[in-house]
Amino acid sequence: MKIVLLGPPGAGKGTQAKSICNRFSIPHISTGDIFRNHISKRTPLGIEAKKSIDRGELVSDELTINLVEERLMQEDCKIGFLLDGFPRTVIQAKALDEFLENKGEKLDTALLIDVPKDFIIERMSGRRVCLSCGASYHIKFNPPNYEGKCDVCGSDVTQRKDDKEETVKDRLQIYHDQTQPLINYYKVKEMLSIVDGTQAINDVFKNICDILGSGNK
Ligand code: ADP
Ligand code: ADP
Ligand code: ZN
């Protein structure tokens, strides 16, 4: 199963990605998590990416595409994968198609988690993340069992610097300008599926499972 998750920042991509990847036993590839990991380790890539991320801007296509292609070449992606946060531009989507085509493969679906703008600010201002394992929580909708600690790995959960309200507005604008066109890109290719992301976390997941089927792909 090869899936791309689409949706605005705060739609619930990361949250659903964890459940989907558990259910279908495929690796979860989140470009945001990979960048944050590089940033915390202060690698050259992290230092470069941080400049854009802190401003709410996108990291360059070239750097991002290279990173994802390298990841997709690893052994565990042979059975499939779920891409979360990539592609984010039409250039990235075309690069992904080409990369897969060269290997005689293609995506099964591009799954859009559809959430209107009105929900986004509250979701993002209450988001807390675990920098160790990437788990995502919400102070109101999905709090960790012990305040401030990750349920999965016990590390501290914190607010992302780019989840401040000012940066969120810029990110939404960038989503509108650069990422939203991907919805039509996949629609034209008859690869788009849409799930209503305004429901409770478990209900969204149930609908996603209905769309993806039994996982025998
Ligand atoms: P969210 O889950 O809120 O949508 P992510 O964790 O996916 O955010 O991404 C955080 C930041 O990392 C983005 O705002 C952007 O700066 C950078 N980033 C992540 N994925 C990409 C990508 N595919 N192309 C360019 N920049 C990216
Ligand atoms: P994305 O990866 O798309 O940016 P996240 O999965 O990090 O989004 O979710 C954004 C915030 O919204 C997190 O705080 C998360 O706990 C919360 N959240 C995710 N899905 C839902 C939902 N269906 N209802 C309410 N809150 C949600
Ligand atoms: Zn954790």
Automatic annotation (TrEMBL):
Its main location: cytoplasm. Pathway: Purine metabolism; AMP biosynthesis via salvage pathway; AMP from ADP: step 1/1. GO terms for molecular function: AMP kinase activity. Residues 127-162 form the Adenylate kinase active site lid domain. Zn(2+) binds at residues 130, 133, 150, 153. Residues 30-59 are annotated as: NMP. AMP binds at residues 31, 36, 57-59, 85-88, 92, 160, 171. ATP binds at residues 10-15, 127, 136-137, 199. The keyword Cytoplasm applies. Signal peptide: none annotated. Keywords: ATP-binding, Cytoplasm, Kinase, Metal-binding, Nucleotide biosynthesis, Nucleotide-binding, Transferase, Zinc. Residues 126-163 are annotated as: LID. The keyword Metal-binding applies. It is found in: Cytoplasm. It catalyses: AMP + ATP = 2 ADP. Its EC number is 2.7.4.3. Belongs to the adenylate kinase family. Catalyzes the reversible transfer of the terminal phosphate group between ATP and AMP. Plays an important role in cellular energy homeostasis and in adenine nucleotide metabolism. Consists of three domains, a large central CORE domain and two small peripheral domains, NMPbind and LID, which undergo movements during catalysis. The LID domain closes over the site of phosphoryl transfer upon ATP binding. Assembling and dissambling the active center during each catalytic cycle provides an effective means to prevent ATP hydrolysis. Some bacteria have evolved a zinc-coordinating structure that stabilizes the LID domain. NCBIfam families: adk, PRK00279.1-1, PRK00279.1-2, PRK00279.1-3, PRK14527.1. Monomer. This is Adenylate kinase.
